[in-house]
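Re: weekly structure request thread

Next one in the queue (415 aa):
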Amino acid sequence: MAFEEWGDWLSKRFGSRWPLLVALSLVGALAVFAGIPLWQAALGWFFLVCLTLAGGGKAELKDVQTQPVDHSRQSDPLSEITATIGALDMPLLVLDAEANVLCQNPACDRLLGTLPVGTHISARMRSPAVLDMVRETLATGRSNQIEHAERLPSQQVYMVRIAPIVLQMPAGGRRLYLLSFRDISELRRLDQMRSDFVANASHELRTPLASLRGFIETLQGPAKSDVQAQERFLSIMLDQATRMSRLVDDLLSLSRLELRSHVAPEGKIDLAPLLCHVRDSLAPLAHDLGVEIRLHLPEGAVEVAGERDELVQVFENLVENACKYGQDGKIVDVHLRPLDPGPVEVSVIDRGPGIPAEHVPRLTERFYRVSVADSRSKKGTGLGLAIVKHILTRHRARLIVRSELGRGSDFTVRF
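Done, posted below.
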């Protein structure tokens, strides 16, 4: 047993050359007994051992280098591509040189539905422009992209791109192509909103400017000496200048709110005295319109996180709109409800003609009006509810609108 353990140790220490080393050691010992000087025997033994070890290392290295490579362990490129695109949230398809589907990721399943392997892309994608782009890339090998719009079930716009996949390892001799769908719907909506905003703002400013210019030319010409016409025209010019001033102020307010929309307010505001302040500040307007503003406040303080000036602007906008557009109902009710343990709510309720249901979702859009003539006659800029929406977004609050034709409207702020 001791001999076997000694052999194992020598094998681990010196590899397959250990028997030769033992033999050399015995030869060296016999040389000493034969009368050769010890230093000569030791030097010769050391030289032979070094040659033996060097030769063994080369042999072992040669054995390692000549081992055959196991090609069966190399991964399949298509399976690696499938695993990679499966982790991405963009819809992706892998096509072969005949535009047949080889694989797709879950995001593409949700967009186009599951396509069986080998199905031609035209079985699901019907757009002639996209199919022509795919055919061109398959023929030329060059990348292409095109903008594609889906109208059902909702308006969606995609940047569809196809490009060849360059592989370091062959994929069975096949050429592969990646078809991707990048959703740019939100970018297109923002572009449209920006265009609409510029057009509407230009239109709103152009009208009073044209009016001012016309009256100034009249005062400089035919009405130069007409005192009564001058007084009448100057009064109209003041109204138009005031209208432009309100519009510019509202646009500046929107810009400031957009810059601060991500910063939540830190202070605490008691809503009861704030609503009393709003009622008192709008009392002259309500009196002129023949409307009574009624407050319904609970006992004690009702505090929310907020900034006083911005919340005053919110409730002044809502109560002023209720007085102007609900004037026929003669009464505007303002309810403050501390829903314990739920959210705090402030409701502004009028008894006017109400708002058609198709207009309610768009009330907070900039310059959107249910009735343009009615809004201008009441000196509205079309930006009031857009400002309300931005302030409430910063305060982490919601605006809930309920309206019924002939019975009035309910605008509720929920904190």
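The chain is about 50% helix and 15% strand. The two ends are 86 Å apart (CA to CA).
Next request, please.
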